[in-house]
Inverse folding.
């Protein structure tokens, strides 16, 4: 779907390895207008992920300085109105703080701050160095997002959540009616419905990192207290796991010298942006191989792809199916979210009873295929929101190859 005007987006992110690739795709996507980045804890601490925004923009700047013709490839790198960079929460609403340094490294980018110090930002005055790219602020992320929602046309902004949902939950706690009235669409990468988790056996990391926030937004006690679910699209691991960039493909099409930390990338013999991505991928490749896969899963990249394909529609109502671009399919799934289980915190508890089954699709299970479904015994004092029709979850995209082609062309300028 190609909108007639740019889609204004707020990107809520915890820049780790796949986040920076998702932001690069956003910078290279003419369909989008980036209004703000809200950076929060998640893959690592909030100060480190903020530094990664600077690293990313510095790499794109070096690429354009080296190859001026590439400026056209990144229409959102130095826009007329730069986006705002706002610091989000440093921890969850409740409970212990969990980070994903085991995968993303201490700095969030595979420890490039140590292995590739040339990628560190050396500018003494970062504001002056990056003022054409983004604007820093002393305002809270909640205040920044509130002002953007109030300043733009009603239901025009898409909120892309690539990390824990803490910041969005704080916004809802303080300005629920404004958000429910004015938000256009919320695209969330998070959760695991019918597949194992990646943070625990049953939980995906973004939901696990702040299950209380996810519960408040997606499964509140009263539907009027949460997000307007007809404007929410969830991309769980069930669909994002299927989208990846195989590292042998990256070697063949992008950087023939790429290997791992055993053979670090050398800046002098390749384009700056390729050096940046290769440096970030080195440790990531080694970690993924220990998981049995020589590829990077494109979780956050898939969410940005979904957002640029599906602009908000102010005419959407609670009973309407979202208008999906060709090749995309979403079905409503009903679930609740476990917040404090000893082994199940962050788990999406899917309602598998017949009355809650989604419309049938190749990626969903037919409830009539099983003879083990019990008659339903209702519990009188168990409160269940009877108006909750479920959340739209992406179950089909135009395909992993389509995303790989888009990403490779837009970020690295390589045709596939």
């Amino acid at each position: 779907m190609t909108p007639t005007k740019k889609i204004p987006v707020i990107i809520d992110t915890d820049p780790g390895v796949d986040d920076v690739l998702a932001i690069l795709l956003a910078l290279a996507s003419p369909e989008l207008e980036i209004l703000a980045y809200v950076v929060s804890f998640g893959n690592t601490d909030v100060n480190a992920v903020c530094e990664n925004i600077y690293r990313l923009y510095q790499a794109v700047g070096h690429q354009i300085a080296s190859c001026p013709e590439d400026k056209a490839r990144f229409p959102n790198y130095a826009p007329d109105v730069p986006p705002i960079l706002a610091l989000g929460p440093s921890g969850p609403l409740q409970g212990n703080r969990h980070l994903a340094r085991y995968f993303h490294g201490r700095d969030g980018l595979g420890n490039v701050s140590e292995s590739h110090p040339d990628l560190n930002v050396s500018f003494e005055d970062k504001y002056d160095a990056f003022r054409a790219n983004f604007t820093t602020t002393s305002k809270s992320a909640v205040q920044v997002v509130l002002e953007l929602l109030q300043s733009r046309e009603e239901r025009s902004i898409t909120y892309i959540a690539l990390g824990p949902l803490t910041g969005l939950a704080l916004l809802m706690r303080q300005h629920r009616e404004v958000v429910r009235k004015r938000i256009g669409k919320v695209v969330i990468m998070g959760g695991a419905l019918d597949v194992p988790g990646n943070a625990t056996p049953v939980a995906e990391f973004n939901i696990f990192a702040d299950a209380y926030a996810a519960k408040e937004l997606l499964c509140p006690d009263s539907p009027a207290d949460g997000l307007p679910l007809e404007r929410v699209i969830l991309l769980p691991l069930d669909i994002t796991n299927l989208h990846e960039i195989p590292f042998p493909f990256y070697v063949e099409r992008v950087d023939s010298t790429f290997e791992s930390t055993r053979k670090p990338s050398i800046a002098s013999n390749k384009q700056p942006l390729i050096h940046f991505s290769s440096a970030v991928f080195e440790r990531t490749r080694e970690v993924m191989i220990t998981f049995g896969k020589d590829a990077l899963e494109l979780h956050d990249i898939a969410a940005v792809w979904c957002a640029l394909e599906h602009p908000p529609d102010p005419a959407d109502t609670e009973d309407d199916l979202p208008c999906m671009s060709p090749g995309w399919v979403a079905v409503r799934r009903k679930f609740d979210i476990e917040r404090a289980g000893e082994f199940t915190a962050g788990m999406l508890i899917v309602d598998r009873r017949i009355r809650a089954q989604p419309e049938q699709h190749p990626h969903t299970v037919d409830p009539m295929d099983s003879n083990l479904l019990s008659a339903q015994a209702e519990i009188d004092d168990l409160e269940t929101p009877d108006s909750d029709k479920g959340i739209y979850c992406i179950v089909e995209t135009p395909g992993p190859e389509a995303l790989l082609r888009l990403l490779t062309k837009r970020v690295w300028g390589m045709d596939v």
Q: What stands out?
A: The chain has 14 helices and 13 strands.
